[in-house]
Amino acid sequence: MKTYSGGCHCGAVRFEVMVEEPLELERCNCSVCTKSAYLHLIVPRSQFKLVSGEDQLNTYTFNTGVAQHYFCQICGIKPFYVPRSNPDGVDVNVNCLDEEPVDVTIVEFDGLNWEQNAHKLAHKTANR
Questions:
Q1: Which partner from 34, 38, 76, 119 sits 20 to 30 angstroms from 107, CA to CA?
Q2: Cα–Cα dist 109/30, whole Å
Q3: What confidence tens digit (pLDDT) does each residue in 33-85 have?
């Protein structure tokens, strides 16, 4: 397991994520991911640690309200969220990591048609 550190733009929110490499990341074409340039790394909750800034986080929800999109109240960056596809996990924005992972595969995910494709993400936190 490798630990990556990351956070929001202003540094108020800091986290660590432990992953097994190589990494499989998703690039989603839905409106919220496209507009926020989000590159997905979904991990079980046990592999994520919020180091600081919990008091600076605010939550945005839409549609079903299941996904909890956390963003920094100071700089507005969304470094991670609890995804609807994996509510037992955390989805980290790889663009918010301090160090860019080298051994990655990016999978295009059709989030514009989320209902038909969500099952493709279920394995990300299952049995871990």
A1: 76
A2: 9
A3: 899 899 999 999 999 999 999 999 999 988 888 889 999 999 999 999 999 88
Can you read off the two tokens belonging to residue 23?
Answer: 């990494």
Residue 6 in contact with residue 92, Cβ under 8 Å? yes
**Amino acid type, 74:** I
Strand 104-109 relative to strand 23-28, pairing: parallel
Reference 27, options 6, 16, 15, 41; nearest CA is 41
For residue 113, give Cα distances in angstroms to 16, 47, 80, 94: 31, 28, 22, 23
Q: Look at phi and psi of residue 65 and say left if phi exceeds 0, alpha if psi is from -120 to 50, else beta.
A: left
> Domains of the chain, with CATH numbers?
2-124 (2.170.150.70)
Q: What is the 8-class DSSP label of residue 32? A: H
The strands making up 80-82's β-sheet, listed across from edge to edge, are 57-60, 68-72, 80-82, 89-93, 39-44, 23-28, 104-109
Integer angstrom CA distances of residue 20 from 3, 5, 10: 9, 14, 28
pTM (2 decimals)? 0.89
